[in-house]
Write a structure and sequence with these properties.
Length: about 70
């Protein structure tokens, strides 16, 4: 995150349990997706779904939407 910020890049952070130390390092221009759960397994399952959704969205933007 420090390297990204030093190079004027935005950060997309996937966190859980309120964000912890990572949440405190984020800038207002960054994107913080925090899963409101306490169980690590539940947070990781949700992160996996979010990553798949982001990849699908990127594929659609780059390759066009399949009908």
């Amino acid at each position: 995150m420090n390297a990204a910020h030093a190079n004027d890049l935005r950060v997309i952070a996937l966190t859980g349990k309120g964000g912890g130390a990572i949440g405190e390092l984020l800038y207002d221009t960054d994107i913080h997706i925090s899963v409101p759960a306490e169980r690590t397994a539940r947070i990781q399952e949700t992160h996996l779904l979010i990553i798949h959704c982001l990849c699908d969205g990127i594929d659609c933007l780059l390759m066009g939407v399949e009908e």
